[in-house]
User: Fold this.
Amino acid sequence: MASHATPPPGRAASTGRDDFHPDLPDHDNGPGGAVGSEVPLHARLHHIRADTLDGDTAQTGGMRRFAAISGSRVGSRRIWMGQTHVAARTASSNHHHGASETAIHVVKGHPEFVFLDDSSGAPEEVRIRTSPGDYIFVPPFVPHREENPSADEEAVVVIARSTQEAIVVNLPELYVLGDEPDAN
Assistant:
C-alpha cells in the first residue's frame, strides 16, 4: 500500500486506502471489502494478513497448521497455502497428504523431514536437515513427519498444496510408499 508523509501535488493525505489508485474500491476495509464483497471471488485479488491465518484446518499431533489460501477462505480451486509451526524439541505424528503434492519453504529454524526409503531393498529412515530458505517437495501419499530438534527455537514453514484444502491422513507409523499397513 502506498503512503506518503507529504501527499504529492493534487493528492489528499492518506486515508488508509490505496493512494496509488484512490478511485478503486478498498477490498480490505469497509463496504465492498473482502467480507460481503459484491465482486466475485475469482474477479479480484485477496490479501490475507499474517494475523488472520486460520487455525481451523486439518492438524497433526506435534505441529499446528494455519491456512492462508484455501477454497473455503478465498475460493481457490486447485491450491492450498499456509504455515506450519513445530515447537522446539517436537516431532509431528506420521502422516501423508493424500493425492496432494506439497511444496515446503523453510522460513525459520532448522526442521528435519523424515521418511522411509527402500531403494536399497530394505526400508531405511532418511532424515533431511534444512535451513531457512530451503525447499522440500513431498509427493502424493508419501508418509513422513516433521521434527524440530532445536532446544529453543520454533520451526516455521510455508506450505503450498495442489488441492484447495489441507488433506492430512495421520498414520500410526511410517511405511514405504506401496507397503501400506493393513487397515484391519
About this structure: The mean pLDDT is 80.
